[in-house]
TrEMBL record:
The keyword S-adenosyl-L-methionine applies. This is Queuosine biosynthesis protein. Keywords: Cytoplasm, Queuosine biosynthesis, S-adenosyl-L-methionine, Transferase. GO terms for molecular function: S-adenosylmethionine:tRNA ribosyltransferase-isomerase activity. It comes from the Bacteria. GO terms for biological process: tRNA queuosine(34) biosynthetic process. InterPro entries: QueA, QueA_dom1, QueA_dom2, QueA_sf. It comes from Streptomyces hawaiiensis.
Amino acid sequence: MTLAVRVPEELSARVPVEQRGPGLERDAVRMLVSRGAEVAHHTFTELPLLLGAGDLLVVNTSATLAAAVDGWTGHARVVVHFSTPGDDGRWAVELREPDGRGTSRARAGGPAGREVCLPGGVRLVLEEPLSGRSERLWWARVSGPGVPGLLRAYGRPIRYAYTRRDQPLSVYQTVFALPAADGAGSAEMPSAARPFTARLVAELVSRGVRFAPVTLHTGVASAEAHEPPYPERFAVPEASARLINAAKAGGGRVVAVGTTAVRAVESAVGADGAVRARAGWTDLVVTPERGVRVVDGLLTGLHEPEASHLLMLEAVAGRVAIERGYEAALQGRYLWHEFGDVHLVLP
């Protein structure tokens, strides 16, 4: 699926909503609501009015990492984006080039054996591309005590050129984020959940809406190349599997908060349609051909219309709903990207 959509530069959300005016909180964003071909305009604080007792929100508890670290390769400055830890101690990384504005741009990866000097005397060595599809991401070994400590000491959140300035890591944590014991987390924020506040969660619970936590650690997005998603680590706990199955059996709607939650839940469903506790790696790519077996609705941010994101949305809502939704978002001057407005797709 492709959409002929060009997002005007002025519709990029450059700072978080709570920094746009006095008294604003994270939930002060707009929310486009799609039900089939019908589109309605709401604020995010109205979410409790659109859900009810028996509905279930599936939320991603992955914490955002300070995944960008400055380094040197030879005489050239680079920015290393740490994406995903492997099972063998290596990390998938992307080497990028500083752009002089506090952000970075894509650069060629490799070759194997390239060494990058990082702060604290740490050295990183590229070993092999993560995939035969692209040489953007590489498996690398890092000397020293470990990457989580390196990120805590010297890292900063990954930031793209449409944002105005660096932000503290706390700005990129959702209310559902739980630090992992092994230091794993998401290279980029699971941003669909960013507008939730503790107050809004309490109001949803008081109305009988339940929450099912899952974990999917997101890797570095392909901001320029729009590659298909790579395998990512995920976990669906037993308690959440039971909540999801109970909601389905009781006629409630299962609404995933973010495409990461969709990927996690749909990776844990069996041929019989039941969700079971699972943990490990998922390479699932949700497409209209594959469809969704568990998720009824989706809360997602507004992102550049690239293939894998749109295919997942089409799998949940159908093509007409997504086309109408994007058209309405542009006409309504909604704000894009991780600090922007959100899109709720309901059956």
